[in-house]
Amino acid sequence: MTNQQAVLDLLDIVEYGGCAEPQQFFALMRRTFDIAHLLYVEAEPTAEGLKVCRLHHTFGAYAEELYLSRGLHRIDPILRLALGGVRPVEWATARRRFPECEPLFQAAEEIGLATEGVALPLPSPTGRLALLAISGNMSPAEWSEYRRCHLRDFQLAANLFHASMLEKAAMVDAMDERDTRLTSRETEVLTWSAAGKSYWEIATILGISERTVRFFMSNTRRKLNVVSNTQAVAQAVRHALIPTI
């Protein structure tokens, strides 16, 4: 069985080291546990079905291409049960329960992938659905025993990693929001630009120099990640940063 100190070290790294890089987390998990592959997916329910927002795995490009090209994601019972569920989903149980999904497991066996594994549903306050799937190259009996011994470790590591991913996404969103927030003067300058005023006219209206107007417009283009004033106006209108005339 896995050394318990190694497990504790892993959990410390994920919890306190802010391990929000999927491949780094996967490498730590594979080094700590006797597991073959990992997959992390976060999806958002839509009227058309699930929209995948984040997908990271260790299966390789060929396995991903095979999975998608054969439409196996449409019949995958593990995704169906784990995304939005609360209990761990054992792959073998899903295989027995949904015999119509046998092509998925046969495809995995074709390319030498393990078919023993577990999918762990992960809570998300954003309304999205997420899971971490873990597989092992073991016999069914060996995997059953290994899973029994380490399921709690898997769940804790998965939840800590998922929390890091959510925190990282929230920080990025906050940075984006802060960076795109226009000052009152930038808003004034851009509003007059949207009205078709030239730099000279805006400078006259606001009682500032034309050079200062150019400075504010340059800042605005940078914040909105555009290259022209026309694009800046369009972005600002789209995000309700300036009043529409």
Question: Any overview of this molecule?
Answer:
InterPro entries: Sig_transdc_resp-reg_C-effctor, TF_LuxR_autoind-bd_dom, TF_LuxR_autoind-bd_dom_sf, Tscrpt_reg_LuxR_C, WH-like_DNA-bd_sf. One of its GO terms (biological process) is regulation of DNA-templated transcription. The protein has two domains: 2-174, Transcription factor LuxR-like, autoinducer-binding domain (Beta-Lactamase, 2-Layer Sandwich), CATH 3.30.450; 182-237, Arc Repressor Mutant, subunit A (Orthogonal Bundle). The protein contains eleven helices and five strands, in the order ααββααβααββααααα. The chain has helices at residues 4-16, 22-32, 61-69, 77-82, 91-97, 102-110, 140-180, 184-194, 199-206, 210-224, 229-238; strands at 37-46, 49-57, 89-90, 116-122, 129-136. The protein has a five-stranded antiparallel sheet with strand order 2-1-5-4-3. The protein starts with a helix and ends in a 7-residue tail after the last helix.
- Quickly give the structural class: alpha+beta
**Main sheet properties:** 5 strands, antiparallel
Helix content: 55-70%
The tally of helices reads 11
Overall 3D form: elongated
Q: Which CATH architecture of the largest domain? A: 2-Layer Sandwich
Number of strands: 5
The average pLDDT value, as a whole number, equals 87
Measured on Cα atoms, how large is the radius of gyration? 25 Å
Strand percent estimate: 5-15%
Instruction: Please give the order of strands in the largest beta sheet.
Output: 2-1-5-4-3
Name of the top-level CATH class of the largest domain: Alpha Beta
What is the fourth-level CATH superfamily of the largest domain?
Transcription factor LuxR-like, autoinducer-binding domain
Task: Give the count of structural domains.
Answer: 2
